[in-house]
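Section: Multi-chain targets

For targets with more than one molecule, the full set of components is provided together so that the structure can be written out for the assembly as a whole rather than chain by chain. Components appear in the order listed by the source. The example entry contains three components.
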Amino acid sequence: MHMSDALISPAVGGTMWAVSGGIITYCARKVKDSLRDNLVPLMGVLGAFIFTAQMINFSIPGTGSSGHLGGGLILAVLLGPYAAFLVIASVLTVQAFFFADGGLLALGCNIFNLGFYPAFIAYPFLYRVIAKDRYVSSRAVVAAIAAAMAGLQLGAFSVVLETKASGMSDLPFGTFVLLMQPIHLAIGLVEGLTTAAVVSFVARARPEVLPTAVATPAAPVRLKPLLAGLSLAALTIGGGVSWCASTRPDGLEWSIAKVTGKKEVAKPRGGLHARLATVQEATAVLPDYGFKPPETAAAKPDKPETSGPWPAVSAGTSVSGIAGGLATLLLVCLIGFVLKKRHATA
Amino acid sequence: MGFEAWIEVSRMDELGRQDTPVHRIDARAKTVTTLLFIAIVMSFPRYEVSALTPFFLYPLSLMAIGLIPARSLLKKLFVAAPFALAVGIFNPFFDHRTAAFVGAAPVSGGWLSFASILVRFLLTVSAALVLVACTGMHRLCAGLGRMGMPHVFVVQLLFLYRYLFMITDEGARMLRSIELRSSGKASLRFRAYASLVGHLLLRSMARAERVYRAMQARGFDGEVRILHPTPLRWSDPAFVCGWTAFFVVARCWNLADMLGALMTKGEL
Amino acid sequence: MNPPVVEVRDLSYAYPDGTKALQGISLAVGPGEAVALVGANGAGKSTLLLHLNGYLMPAAGAVLIGGTPLTRETAAAVRRAVGMVFQDPDDQLFMPTVAEDVAFGPLNAGLTPDEVERRVTKALERVGKSHLRERPPYKLSAGEKRAVAIATVLAMAPDVLVMDEPSSNLDPRGRRRLIEQLRSFGHTRIIATHDLELVVEVCSRVIVLDGGRLVAEGPATVLLNDEALMLAHGLERPHILRHLHPH
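Its structure, encoded as tokens over all components, is:
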């Protein structure tokens, strides 16, 4: 689910950078103010632990594929939302730096998609609510699965929104969603089961490291905050990102039109999806966004304004363009080679 | 991502600690330039391919002067490619409008945008990897801190990085001991995985406590202070300005087309 | 006799789960003395050490460093006076480079950058590892890690050096270097160790713990040579003394 730079527009990337940067700053202050200075080594070590846990795979019987712990949820259980978000962000940063697992421009998106939902939505509103502090029970398993699935669904959906808002992909919104959501439902199930297994292991061996219902601030037990949180998240993503998709307003409204027109995505896959679909409808009638008539999947919507009129696209159309492109590459490689020779012997 | 992947981290770390003219450029200058690079590359309209080619000069010249071997970079590009390709590959299926002609043959917009995505992928990923390989984690994090990244987060990155090698080492040892006892199966069963991860987690938390003890013993008061780094030199702003000028020129004028026009005119 | 630098009076401590770790320990160490703390595993050595730099507070009894009793208020000052080197160097080397690790203590003490730099250079020279300044800790050998860990503590200019199993995991050469270093330090040294041969070479006095109690105390060569005493408390007579006649 790590997004690459090649599919992100600077506008979307920059916006999500601002959002994630703001959350990081906020969490950093919260951690500092908590005066728990033993968090410094603990966060670092747990980040390294998550990294390692992601490198080891287990086989999923019957599918021939393998899975591993993602870790967002378990970090939230062990550290609380603020510290957990920072740890997730740090793991993603190192992955981007060293493995090109996710781009630098897209890092803001990735931190938000993979960090915000598990730490601030799934953990407080689902896991804590369902499991309370009974970490070794079937409640805990249900809680972990529900939280993991919800977190991943929201994250995957954000990926779709961010990609479409960037306008690099022609994949229709509906198809994209149909590709992303079911896969991440399965991944969410695996993540939930794995998290529950590790949490119960820790609860049996060292119960004092897990928060009790009394020690930590009371989590809301009602359903309303859960729905409020999810709606807020969806509105933020839907509204905020679509506001910033200034380069491609048509793309997003076209996909919104597709959603409302075709009703494929509105298939209820649990209350979550229906809710998000209705919220999408709500954002579709926000001011500044017209309501384009639905089109079929085969036809491509016009994107006239920003690309310039069609005939003027000069992406290597003529022979000179192609020759120029190849020659430039050759020239650049030659320069690189010469520089290397000079500095290797220097 | 298997365990051999963390060997890559170790190798990148070694590359980052070299001493070349590129390594001596301030981390902030390199970071700003790389981010500008990525933003400008991604600001091109979606069908642009040839105009992107001059941009390869940035990562390639840094690699050459910074003594970064191309092979390790290529390997990483290969591994990181799937997601971008998986999404981009759909473009030719959905975008059939003819956008260009190669001689007399029409090329659909879908293929052009896909090619553009590929080129952008190569550019952005190599720029990011080169940034890290030419700077090293320590200098990079210190630089990010001086550019406004919250100190708590900088410290978190440094600690994660410090203990990454240790914990992956421990994990590898535990994995090996399990593998030796389980008749040569390729992947762990779920129970074995959960148990391994659970144990690793407990050991990690115990280590964190011991580290905290050691930190307290040396007067830790909640603030991790980093030594004062070297000041900026003239080469640092020169680096940023020079490359930015090149990026802007390459963005506003299609240098590849110009070169090609020169060549074909010469031939004709 | 000089006033003791480290004094423990009737110290008792029990873990949260109730196990009595220390029962009525009393001892005194004079300035410049090198004292060894020996005992079987679980005898209470580590627990006692953790009291000496204020990590643990006595449940009963008192710990005095340089005459100052250890309390929560004085803990910070005590930590400046008592430098502790832990068993696993990887737990103490947590900064990106050796220089940063050695500078950690002085920086926390609020010294100026120049003074910090002086301390770092001096400490690394003292352990003979100046060339490792810019090395990251994971690239060090066990012996180098141990030496650098000691340097991180020396940089704080403590009055007392407390060490927990300093020779563990060292190869013979590393161990020899460590022994030479320990002999050359002028600090008051308290060393908890299983390495009884090291004790004979470095320490003048030995304190034997068993089951949380202090069961014997005296000159190293005398106590360690007492085979019956050693065996009674889960230890043995070090080889190096087998050729010495008790005198």
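The longest strand of chain C covers residues 20-29.
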